[in-house]
Design a protein that fits this description.
The protein contains 16 helices and eleven strands. The chain is of the alpha+beta class and 422 residues long.
Length: 422
C-alpha cells in the first residue's frame, strides 16, 4: 500500500491486489446524518442519490448508467451517520475513466429540480421500506434510544417531512460545506496503473474549498437509568424483534482490538456464545448477533435478535446468563483462540476483493491519522488477552446504561421490561 497526498491535501491510498484485473476507485467524504440540522435530516443521503442524476459531461441519469454499463462496471454509493462513499469497480483498463467519472459526479453534478423532486419520492419509499423491515429497523430504533438527544440518534435517510421540505439551495450549500479536500479520502485498489497519481491530481487534486467545521455536537456520554428506556414500534409480526444496547468505544480507542474480539466471541459468529445458547440450545431465534459500531467520539455494542414471542423471557434469561458469565469469568482460552482465527480469516478473505481493500483504507483515514494495514490489524487482534476482554466486558455491560428497542405486538414498554431477569 502507498499513501500519497494530492496537491490540495486530499489523502489517497494506492493498494495493489495481486492476481486481479479489476480496479476499484472509492471516494469518501466525512459527512453523514450526524452533521445535519433537524430541518436537513437526510441531506447527506439525498446528496448521495443526486450524484447519479446527471453531470455536465453526462447530463442525465441514463447517460451515467449507460456509460458505466458500457464498461461492465459495478458502481454504487452509501451513506452512514458519519461518512458517505462512492465507488466504481471495473476492468483496470478503465480506471482513468472511473476516476474522471467519480470526479464529475462529486463536483460537477447538475441537481436538476425535476430530478430532485422525483428522487424525494424515491427516498420516501426507501424510508418506508426500512420501517417495514424489522431486521433493519430494530437497529435504528436502538440507536435512537442509545443516543437520544444527539444527532447520532437520527435516521440516516431522514423523514418524509424533511424530504418534502428541504430546498435545492439548502442541499447544495450543505454539500459544498462538507465536500472539501480536508474532509475527503480516496482509495484505488486492485490492479493500479502507474499513472493513477497523475490522474487523481488532474481531477480531485484541483478541488478548492475552505475547511468546514465538524458541524455536529459531540456526544456527551451515556446516562444512567433506573429503568431502561425502550424505543418501540407496534407491528403485527410472527417474531418479536429485540435490541439491547450498551456503551461502546470510539474509532481511536486503544481497546478497539479487544472490542472486536469481545463482540465476535459473544455474538459475531455461528460458534459464538449467544448463537450457541439462544439459537442452538434454546431454539428461540433464527437470528441473534452482537456487533460493535464505532463512531468518532463514542460507540455502541448492540445485541439484535428475532425471537419466539411466546418465549421472550426465556431468551432474555439466556442472554443475560452469558453476559454475567463473561463479566465474572471472562472468555476461555479456547474461545479466545477460535475467535482470533475467525477474525483473521474474515479480514484476509475480505481484502482479496479490491472494493473491500479500498474501503479498508479510505474509511479509516477519515477518522484516524495513522491507518493500520490489514496485517497490522491482525497482529493487534492476536495480541489481545483474555484479561483485556474481561475488563472491557465489565465496563461495557453496564445494566444502568442499557437501552432497548422492540418491534412486535406489545404496546406497553413495561411489559417488555418485565422480561428482563432482574
Amino acid at each position: 500500500m502507498q499513501q500519497i497526498k494530492l496537491k490540495n491535501g486530499i489523502r489517497a491510498f494506492l493498494a495493489p491486489v495481486e492476481g486481479t484485473a479489476a480496479t476499484t476507485v472509492l471516494v469518501m467524504t466525512k459527512v453523514g446524518s450526524r452533521y445535519e440540522t433537524e430541518e436537513l435530516n437526510g441531506a447527506s443521503h439525498f446528496v448521495e442519490h443526486m450524484m447519479f442524476k446527471g453531470t455536465n459531461k453526462l447530463p442525465t441519469p441514463s447517460d451515467i448508467s449507460r456509460a458505466l454499463d458500457a464498461i461492465g462496471a459495478d458502481f454504487n454509493a452509501y451513506t452512514s451517520k458519519e461518512y458517505t462513499g462512492y465507488y466504481i469497480k471495473a476492468d483496470s483498463v478503465h480506471q482513468k475513466f472511473a476516476i474522471e467519472t467519480l470526479y464529475d459526479m462529486t463536483f460537477d453534478s447538475l441537481y436538476p429540480v425535476a430530478e430532485m423532486d422525483r428522487e424525494r419520492n424515491v427516498i420516501i419509499e426507501e424510508i418506508n421500506m426500512y420501517e417495514d423491515t424489522p431486521v433493519r429497523h430494530i437497529d435504528d430504533l436502538l440507536e435512537g434510544a442509545m443516543f437520544d438527544g444527539n444527532s447520532l440518534s437520527w435516521e440516516i435517510a431522514g423523514s418524509a417531512e424533511t424530504m418534502k421540505t428541504m430546498t435545492r439551495d439548502a442541499v447544495i450549500k450543505f454539500r459544498d460545506d462538507h465536500y472539501t479536500p480536508s474532509r475527503m479520502t480516496i482509495a484505488v485498489a486492485g490492479k493500479v496503473d502507474g499513472d493513477v497519481e497523475e490522474w487523481l491530481n488532474d481531477t480531485f487534486g484541483n478541488v478548492k474549498g475552505d475547511d468546514a467545521s465538524d458541524g455536529y455536537s459531540k456526544f456527551e456520554g451515556f446516562k444512567e437509568h433506573d429503568i431502561p428506556p425502550v424505543n418501540m414500534q407496534k407491528k403485527v409480526t410472527e417474531q418479536v424483534h429485540l435490541g439491547l444496547g450498551f456503551p461502546g468505544i470510539s474509532y481511536d480507542d486503544e481497546r478497539a482490538a479487544a472490542m472486536s474480539v469481545l463482540a465476535t466471541l459473544f455474538g459475531g459468529s455461528m460458534s459464538s456464545r449467544l448463537f450457541m445458547s439462544v439459537r442452538e440450545k434454546g431454539g428461540l431465534a433464527y437470528r441473534i448477533v452482537s456487533r460493535h459500531s464505532a463512531y468518532e467520539d463514542t460507540g455502541i455494542l448492540a445485541i439484535l435478535a428475532g425471537l419466539d414471542k411466546s418465549r421472550l423471557s426465556e431468551a432474555m434469561d439466556r442472554i443475560f446468563i452469558e453476559i454475567d458469565d463473561l463479566v465474572k469469568n471472562g472468555p476461555t482460552d479456547e474461545e479466545m483462540q477460535r475467535t482470533k482465527q475467525f477474525i483473521r480469516g474474515h479480514i484476509l478473505l475480505a481484502i482479496e476483493d479490491s472494493a473491500s481493500r479500498a474501503e479498508w483504507y479510505a474509511q479509516k483515514a477519515l477518522f484516524l491519522d495513522e491507518v493500520k494495514t490489514p496485517e497490522e490489524r491482525i497482529a493487534a487482534i492476536e495480541a489481545v488477552t483474555s484479561e483485556q476482554v474481561k475488563s472491557l466486558a465489565n465496563e461495557i455491560f453496564d445494566k444502568k446504561k442499557m437501552t432497548m428497542s422492540y418491534i412486535g405486538p406489545e404496546e406497553d414498554p413495561d411489559n417488555v421490561r418485565a422480561t428482563l431477569p432482574w
